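Hi U.,

Before I forget, here's the chain from the pilot set. I'm dumping it here mostly so it's searchable later in email.
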Amino acid sequence: MDYDVLYTFMITTAILSISPGPDNIFVLMQSVINGKKYGLATVAGLMSGCLIHTTLVAFGVSILIKQSDTLFFIIKLFGALYLFFLAYKVFRSDASVNLSETGIPKKTLGQLFRQGFVMNVLNPKVSIFFLAFFPGFLFSESLSNVLQFYILGFLFILVSFLIFGSIAVMSGAISEYLKKSAKIGVVLKWLQIIVFIGIAIFILLSEK
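Structure:
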């Protein structure tokens, strides 16, 4: 087992989780408006949805990898191109962090859990991201690909839950910091770009 690959995977996941996006901004706003436990309920729903995407990618991609070296190369190429595309989208996006509280009604813990779950499961971009992200981080020649994908999925969920959970718990302080800091959006924007490009290159260089 190549533990360096797993460490790199976890660090990359942490950086991506910290960078402002629709999911963690939604968690932040639910926590600010409704309270920390409501933010944590949203996080639990989002992370539960990741299990579905992990399963889809684990079985689908594993079959393709077993069938052909060419298919594995195509998956790698697709993943790298998609990550380059994400880097370009971030580059073209506004660096400001929008924390508008309008249009966020209060909901129960159960409703927020279900909403987080449905938001994640019905978002095809998550499956596409997993498909692009995971194959380059296979870390063992002895373990089955399905098991490796599930390990990567659970590590992704664990790291993301810790980051998102921290956002929910420290929602007030984080919200105030983001509102006061004009440069944080720019820093996180370029951090995302560097990470996406770095992962794309890593995937292109990875071997079956």
